[in-house]
C-alpha cells in the first residue's frame, strides 16, 4: 500500500476517534444545558427527551432566586480564589528551591508531596473536622480554603517544579551576578519566564477548589456553604429538582469556562514550556 494512503487513513482514523471522544465527553454537559431550559415537568419526564419541546428560563429564575444560592456562589468564589492564592504562595518558592538546590531532602519532599496527593480525601476528612473545630474555622470560607489547599498544593508543587526545570540555571545566576538575591531572581527573572506555567497551575488549583464537594459538605453548614453542596440539596415535591439543579450547574460552569478562555494563551504557552530546547 502507498505510504501516503496509509498515512491518510491513519489521520482519518485519528480524527474519527478524536471526534468520538469529544462527543462522549461533551454530550453530558450538552444534555445538562438543554435540560436547564425545559419546563419542570419535562425535566423529569420518562422517557426523557434530549431536545426541549418548550424553551423556558423559569429554572434559572427559580434557582438563582432560591434562598442561599447567591451566598453560596459568593462563598465558592471566595474559597476558590483564597485556596488558589495560598497554593501558589506556598508552591512557587517550594518548587523553586527544589529545582535550584537539588538536595536529597528536596527530592524526598517532592516525593512526599506526591504521596499525600494519593491519599483519599475521605481519609483526612474526619481529622480536618477536628482541626478546624479547634481552630475556630468550622463553617468559614477561610477554613474551607485551607482544606482545599491540602488537595491542590501537592499538585501545584509538582507542576511548578516541572516548569522551573525547563528554565536554565544560567538565567537566575546572571540575575544574581547583577545584584539580585535568590528571591529577587525568582520574582523578577524566572517567574516572568514561566508565567504560562503559573497560569496552568492556577487553573488546576482553582478547579480543585471550585469542584470540591466532600470537604465543603463536612466543614460547612450554613455560612460558608458552597454551590456544589447547594446543588446536591435541591428538592421539590416530586423529588430532586432536576430543572433547578441543571440551571444552577450551568451557571456554576460559566466562571471556569471564562477563566480558561481568558488564560488560554498562557495555558498553551505553559503546556509547551520546555518542549523545545536549544
From TrEMBL:
It comes from the Bacteria. Residues 73-263 form the ABC transmembrane type-1 domain. The chain crosses the membrane at residues 12-34, 72-96, 108-129, 141-164, 185-210, 242-263. It is found in: Cell membrane. InterPro entries: BP-dep_ABC_trans_perm, MetI-like, MetI-like_sf. CDD domains: TM_PBP2. Keywords: Cell membrane, Membrane, Transmembrane, Transmembrane helix, Transport. Pfam families: BPD_transp_1. The keyword Cell division does not apply. It is a multi-pass membrane protein. Belongs to the binding-protein-dependent transport system permease family. This is Carbohydrate ABC transporter permease.
Amino acid at each position: 500500500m502507498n505510504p501516503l494512503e496509509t498515512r491518510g487513513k491513519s489521520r482519518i482514523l485519528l480524527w474519527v476517534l478524536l471526534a468520538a471522544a469529544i462527543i462522549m465527553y461533551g454530550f453530558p454537559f450538552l444534555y445538562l444545558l438543554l435540560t436547564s431550559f425545559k419546563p419542570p415537568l419535562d425535566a423529569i419526564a420518562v422517557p426523557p427527551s434530549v431536545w426541549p419541546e418548550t424553551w423556558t428560563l423559569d429554572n434559572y429564575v427559580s434557582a438563582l432566586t432560591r434562598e442561599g444560592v447567591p451566598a453560596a456562589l459568593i462563598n465558592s468564589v471566595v474559597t476558590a480564589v483564597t485556596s488558589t492564592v495560598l497554593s501558589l504562595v506556598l508552591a512557587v518558592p517550594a518548587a523553586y528551591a527544589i529545582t535550584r538546590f537539588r538536595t536529597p531532602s528536596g527530592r524526598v519532599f517532592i516525593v512526599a508531596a506526591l504521596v499525600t496527593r494519593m491519599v483519599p480525601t475521605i481519609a483526612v476528612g474526619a481529622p480536618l473536622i477536628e482541626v478546624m473545630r479547634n481552630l475556630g474555622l468550622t463553617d468559614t470560607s477561610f477554613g474551607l480554603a485551607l482544606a482545599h489547599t491540602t488537595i491542590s498544593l501537592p499538585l501545584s508543587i509538582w507542576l511548578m517544579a516541572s516548569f522551573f526545570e525547563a528554565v536554565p540555571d544560567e538565567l537566575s545566576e546572571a540575575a544574581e551576578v547583577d545584584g539580585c538575591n535568590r528571591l529577587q531572581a525568582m520574582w523578577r527573572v524566572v517567574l516572568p519566564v514561566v508565567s504560562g506555567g503559573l497560569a496552568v497551575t492556577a487553573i488546576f488549583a482553582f478547579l480543585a477548589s471550585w469542584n470540591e464537594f466532600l470537604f465543603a459538605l463536612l466543614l460547612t453548614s450554613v455560612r460558608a456553604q458552597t454551590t456544589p453542596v447547594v446543588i446536591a440539596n435541591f428538592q421539590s415535591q416530586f423529588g430532586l429538582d432536576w430543572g433547578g439543579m441543571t440551571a444552577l450547574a450551568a451557571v456554576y460552569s460559566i466562571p471556569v469556562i471564562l477563566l480558561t478562555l481568558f488564560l488560554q494563551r498562557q495555558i498553551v504557552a505553559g503546556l509547551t514550556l520546555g518542549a523545545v530546547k536549544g
